[in-house]
Amino acid sequence: MNRSLRKRMRLKGLIRKESLQILRDPSSIAIAFIMPVILLLLFGYGVSLDAKHIRLATVVEQPDTNTAGLIGAFQHSEYFIPVLYHTVQDAEIALMEHKVDGIVWLRNDFSDRLLSRKTAPIGVYVNGVNANQARISVGYIQGVWQTWLSSFSRDQGHDLKTPVMIEPRIWFNAAVNSRYFLVPGLIAVIMTLIGALLTSMVVAREWERGTMEALMVTPIRISEILLGKLIPYFILGMGGMFLSVAMAVWLFDVPLRGSFLALTAASALFMMVALGMGLLISTVAKNQFVAGQIAIITTFLPAFILSGFIFQISAMPEPIQFITHIIPARYFVAILQTIFLAGDIWPIILSNCAALLIMMFVFFGIIKKKAHKRLI
Amino acid sequence: MKTSNALELESVSKTFSSGNRTVVAVDDMSLKIDYGKVTGLIGPDGAGKTTLMRLATGLLLPDQGRIMVLGIDAVQNPLRVQSSVGYMPQRFGLYEDLTVQENLDLYADLQGVSDKDRTERYQELMHMTGLAPFTNRLSGKLSGGMKQKLGLACTLIHPPRLLILDEPTVGVDPVSRRELWSIIYRQVQDEGMSVLLSTAYLDEAERCDEIILMHQGKRLGQGAPRSFSQPLKGRVFHISAPAINKRSLSIRLNSIPGITDAIIEGEKVRVVTETEGMPDLVAYFPDDSNLKIEPAEPIFEDAFIATLGTEKKTRVPYDLAPLQQKNISRQEASEVVIEVKNLKRKFGDFIAVNDVSFQVKRGEIFGLLGANGAGKSTTFRMLCGLLPVTTGTVRTAGHDLRTASAEARGKIGYMAQRFSLYANLSVEQNLRFFASAYGLARKRKKTRIGWALSTFELAPYRDTIAGDLPLGFKQRLAMAASLMHEPEILFLDEPTSGVDPLARREFWLRINTLAESGVTVLVTTHFMDEANYCDRLIIMSEGKVLAEGSPAELKSSIQRPDLPDPTMEDVFITLIEYGKNTEGQAA
């Protein structure tokens, strides 16, 4: 038998073994398929960075048609659930007891001031503990107030005091639905999990169980051992990716504006980077616990926190922003959000792909240098 | 370069460093191993046997020296070495979630065996190992012996020219052990294979063509087993004394200067002396004990002990006096302290312990003998109340320890199979912790720690971190910790597993002394010869009790004209085969 034939036979044997193990090991299946589903459901339904259904205490000291109109406007907004309180003191207590998230206070001179065209006669309190939601709430309250005020003025037959009206127009995610950018970003997290965490742990398991030592003493080459891990887990990771994309598009109605081909290509590249990280960890960590810890701290958590998946990178302090440049998930999240929400914007996709490509070469370069067919 | 040796080492050294400690595993070693022979690598734990094998397979790089395997330089060309040797590491890496056939396929692929050769080779190997009926079983569900045979089959798929086996028979039942040996010998005879193997069983050394005795990374000797044992002619004896029980006799003989070793063998005590002839024993046995001294044929084990055991030997009679009791009255001696009835334990659909019943009397050494996976440890855990029983009853010291008070639990001591002390605490800190855990305080705590340090000769190591102790000392510390509260019953789960023959002897000397002082000892072991130390024992296999009785009773039960003086191993093999036959008839 010639050399290349033997080589093919060895690789085929390894891949078959790995595939059988994946199919029989519930934890691999769980990480590759069940975990993505749980994460997607959690982030798709459970976690929302939007402020919706804000419970708003409304205090009207002197009800009349004007106040009724304004309160009606709050009632019609999908963002608010107005609750009526008679005194501002009651409303404050409710705010402290977390029964409401904010207060809109219309004083007894509301209509007088409004008609005399003096400035805004409404008082707004917001619970600032959740800063993000507070900021959004204030914005929404202002929005409702402005809209009502302009329609009020029009009805009254005179122009609004405000000379310029800002009319915001939000692109790419017109409904400002956080799910639209969370769900695509999540794909990066899921692929990191399969590529880095799962792969480093299965290699560590081989060390723990002594199977690696037995493999090492066969005529196999180290490159074949690596390929034997790489190929099955690449397929598994891409499977997880396709599952996530399908759920994003069909379950969460996230628009996929770019091409599926670009998405697949970029994902394949990122998968290689993630596998590179996993295999690199496994050259250092030879037991599953250590491998898992390293993988979580160096790959999973950064993909979660520092990739721009949840937290805007441009809003981070400078030094942290600098660190994000060495997080592969950062580039992939940018690609994902672009392809899903904006479309095939090639300059962005290609520049981020270039960064991933460089990282892939760096990781595999180190692996090639570090991995050898020896125990120590 | 053409060599006439299967393996050749030339002043090879290998050092490991962990933290600030450096260990010289192989120390300037040179050796040659012939083609077509079975060479045994024998030595205590930490002698460097595994390191030597890993060096020979190119898995480790030597610090210095040259290694030639089948004429190939293992440092320059490890890949070529690996395609012509077969190596089975200590825990052979079978993929437990793959079936027998899938494991074989994998190794056939890795070794580049063509489809044509494969079918024939599979048949041959499956026939040889008796695994043919189990090809579709997950290898994780095979018994320990079958796993080892499968591991061996995997290494033999592409017949290697040199076969390297690291403790292939450890923890395996005697029947499988015998089969493994016959497979190995067949390879040597039929294929002209050369074999290098290490073993913890000294009786297996006799089966090798040649032995390399290793100690502290150095070669102490090399030659046929007889070349080691012959110089001991005239220094080995069997001693028996009708008036003294064999346990006390061995303890007393061990403390006599001029005697290197005294162990119970069958109903006699086997003694190795320092020089030819027996020292005068009259001074030690003044009460005319009617000692019967017969010369015995030396075996390799005697030579091993005589070579390595001298400096290690402890002369001081063990002072276990602070332990409560002494001479137990006749009435107490017949008191049943442990009673097990129809005990059964299931894990899912797997029956680990199946209908086990036995009784243990006060002051006995009671053994549970069986291979790995026979259900010994599971039985122990139920006796100690660590695991609920599925059905059946267990009374330990009159209580069901699952529901008993802490006070009742204070009557037992338990030493787990794996080292269960705190590896990053010092010896003394460990002892102090266990003393407190058992509720000892102040003066008593101090006395007991002092007792443990002196009795177990741990005083020089009191500040050593427990994790850094040699294995034998770890076992001593673990035993000391389990005795801090002076328990009435001591459970020892595989106390000698993985411990070298020297430490094993010493450990048994302590157990014997302990039993003489009145403590009831329950012990599990997979070493057949250790059954001789027990007063009574049960032999277990696959969760069932095959036989119960004293060693003498068990042996006489299988005595036949062609087997006048059976060993415990013979008993075990006979019972297993008898079981198979009756099963066959029933089916």
Protein described:
The complex is a heterodimer of chains A (376) and B (587). Chain A is of the alpha/beta class. Chain A folds into 2 domains: 10-47 and 177-370, no CATH class; 54-156, 3-Layer(aba) Sandwich (abc type-2 transporter like fold). Chain A contains 14 helices and 4 strands. Chain A has helices at 3-24, 26-46, 65-76, 88-96, 110-115, 131-156, 178-209, 211-216, 222-251, 260-284, 288-305, 318-324, 328-342, 346-370, and strands spanning 54-60, 80-85, 102-106, 122-126. Chain A has a 4-stranded mixed beta sheet, sandwiched between helices. Chain A is elongated. The relative contact order of chain A is 0.11. The mean pLDDT of chain A is 86. Chain B is an alpha/beta fold and 587 residues long. Among the domains of chain B are: 5-218, Rossmann fold (3-Layer(aba) Sandwich); 229-308, Alpha-Beta Plaits. Chain B is 33% helix and 26% strand. Chain B is built from 19 helices and 23 strands. In chain B, strands 6-7-8-3-9-10 form a 6-stranded mixed beta sheet, sandwiched between helices. A 6-stranded mixed beta sheet of chain B has the order 19-20-21-17-22-23, with helices on both faces. A 4-stranded antiparallel beta sheet of chain B has the order 2-1-4-5, with helices on one face. In chain B, a hairpin with a 2-residue loop joins β15 (336-347) and β16. In chain B, α3 runs parallel beside α5 and α14 runs parallel beside α16 (471-482). The longest helix of chain B has 19 residues, at 568-586. Chain B is globular, with a radius of gyration of 25 Å. Chain B starts with a strand and ends with a helix. The chains are: A alpha/beta (376), B alpha/beta (587). Chain A binds chain B through residues 1, 6, 9-10, 12-14, 16-17, 20-21, 24-25, 206, 209-221, 373-376, and chain B through 16, 54, 57-61, 78-79, 82-83, 85-98, 102, 105-112, 114, 151, 154.
